[in-house]
Design brief:
The chain is of the alpha/beta class and about 475 residues long. It is built from 15 helices and 17 strands. The strands form four sheets. Strands 5-14-15-16-17 form a five-stranded antiparallel sheet, with no helix packed on it. A four-stranded mixed sheet has the order 3-2-1-4, with no helix packed on it. Strand 1 and strand 2 form a beta hairpin. Helix 2 runs parallel beside helix 3, helix 3 packs parallel to helix 4 and helix 4 runs parallel beside helix 5. The longest helix has 16 residues. The radius of gyration is 22 Å and the shape is globular. The model has no long low-confidence stretch (mean pLDDT about 95). The structure holds zinc ion. GO terms for molecular function: hydrolase activity, acting on carbon-nitrogen (but not peptide) bonds. This is Amidohydrolase. It comes from Iningainema tapete BLCC-T55. InterPro entries: Amidohydro-rel, Metal-dep_hydrolase_composite, Metal_Hydrolase, MTA/SAH_deaminase.
């Protein structure tokens, strides 16, 4: 666990410098500038010498995804969220072995696109909820990525997530009670929440569209009692904006503030349909927005007003979202689209997100959202060594111009040379060292089949109502 990376490029405020970075017991203990005496740094452990042709950055956060969606990537038709979700649920995996394989896949793709942490808003297999969580935790431990497992919970049935409009509708009761759901999460915390070992459990009601106040309030209580971070989807679609007004008579953000869910350890995925007053509430409560640009485009949800969030002082970071609304887990792609997309929304280029700001959002922004900015998110002496080494001789990062500019604005492929999580190396020479990725590829192939012709019964059931209430 003790090592030194020699002669590596790191970013300074507005340029780059070559340094040696020393890591002891998983902590960055020294960053030694060129020509300075390394002192005790050389005494212990291994050293990784680079030829000044590699860039070291803090690891990024894949701050919102759903790992088991990987089984359905590329197959769901161009649908808005509400219909997409109906199809997703009709074909959701019911075998924990499948959850295991796609958690591995999500971790590997995250690592190889610059991520060292993943927030998995994990879809639970009914009747096997704890087993699902245990399986994902096992996969993340094996790969060695820092894991934030956020079991996805709700206490209302799927049809309740679509606004009623003028129609009189009733919904089936959800199959599990609110109390039983909260007990389940508490048990997951007891069994799996081990922050010191890189495994964290979050409370994560899926969103206002499918959750009662009692569920949110129970989650607040667990969050306070066990010091857990809070996660949720928020106002991803226009339909959810309508639904919030029907359900609460106010915006979803106003309601979440009223019931106490917003805080400096709350991360909220999407945040597409917020008012200016809502944005002020997010800033005041120090909540974090997780921007999932590819998913928002794929599902036609809209463009989240990220530049407005930044101007209001709201912390923003990036997520890939699940692999069937993206349909990949390439964090660098999400960071690129998630930063340049907004140039089209504001003529004032001085508001646009620079590549260096994008890198900070993806690293320190993620750490802040998970209440870990003291420990993670930058190359700082005293912080944990979650770091990614990029190969600047990769064709996609050549010729030599501005490495961070190329990494964010270019189309980097196979650029990750090494990754350390908590000082443990999990990628070396571009290959994951902790699991056999060739075997994983074979298993994913064997456990799936070509499914281009499938049809969703639930979509057939709800599509007419959706079109009516949305005025289509
Ligand atoms: Zn999501």
């Amino acid at each position: 666990m003790n090592f030194i990376i020699k002669n590596v490029l790191i970013a300074t405020d507005d340029d780059y410098t070559t340094v040696d970075v020393q890591v002891v017991d998983g902590i960055i203990t020294a960053i030694i500038k060129d020509g300075q005496d390394a002192g005790s740094a050389n005494q212990d452990g291994r050293s990784h010498t680079t030829n000044g042709d590699k860039l070291l950055l803090p690891g990024f956060f894949n701050a919102h995804t759903h790992s088991s969606e990987m089984w359905q990537r590329g197959v769901i038709p161009p649908f808005p969220l509400e219909l997409w979700l109906a199809e997703l649920y009709d074909f959701t995996p019911l075998d924990p072995e499948q959850v295991y394989l796609t958690a591995l896949g999500t971790a590997v793709e995250t690592l190889l696109s610059g991520g060292t942490s993943v927030v998995d808003h994990l879809v639970l297999i009914p009747g096997k909820e704890l087993e699902t969580i245990a399986t994902a935790v096992r996969a993340y431990r094996e790969v060695g990525i820092r894991a934030f497992v956020a079991p996805l919970i709700q206490d209302e049935s799927l049809t309740a997530g679509i606004p009623s409009g003028d129609a009189k509708r009733t919904h089936e009761a959800y199959f599990r009670s609110t109390a039983a759901t909260l007990e389940l999460i508490e048990e997951a915390v007891r069994q799996f929440h081990r922050p010191d070992e890189g495994v964290n459990i979050l409370v994560a009601p899926t969103g206002i569209q499918l959750c009662s106040d009692a569920l949110f309030e129970g989650c607040n209580e667990l969050s306070n009692r066990y010091n857990l971070c809070r996660h949720s989807h928020l106002l991803e679609t226009k339909a959810q904006e309508k639904l919030a007004l029907e359900k609460y008579g106010c915006t979803a953000v106003e309601h979440l503030q009223r019931i106490g869910y917003l805080s400096d350890r709350t991360t909220l995925a999407h945040c597409v349909w917020l008012t200016q007053d809502d944005i002020t509430i997010l800033a005041e409560t120090k909540s974090t927005v997780v921007h999932n640009p590819l998913s928002n485009l794929r599902l036609g949800s809209g463009i989240a007003p990220i530049l407005k969030y930044r101007q209001a002082g709201v912390n923003v970071t990036f997520g890939c979202d699940g692999a069937s609304s993206n349909d990949s887990q390439d964090l660098l792609e999400a960071i690129k689209i998630g930063s340049i997309l907004h140039n089209a929304t504001d003529l004032d280029y001085q508001h646009w997100i620079t590549p260096r700001q994008a890198v900070e959002m993806a690293s320190l922004g993620g750490a802040k959202g998970l209440n870990l900015a003291e420990q993670l998110g930058s190359l700082t002496v005293g912080k944990k060594a979650d770091m990614v080494l990029y190969d600047l001789t990769s064709l996609s990062l050549l010729p030599r111009t501005d490495p961070i500019g190329l990494l964010v604005l270019g189309r980097p492929t196979n650029v990750v040379d090494s990754v350390w999580v908590n000082g443990k190396q999990v990628v070396a020479s571009g290959k994951v060292t902790t699991i056999n990725v060739d075997e994983l590829r074979q298993e994913l192939f064997n456990h799936s089949q070509w499914t281009a012709q499938r049809k969703s019964p639930t979509v057939a059931q709800i599509e007419a109502h959706y079109r009516m209430v949305m005025g289509l």
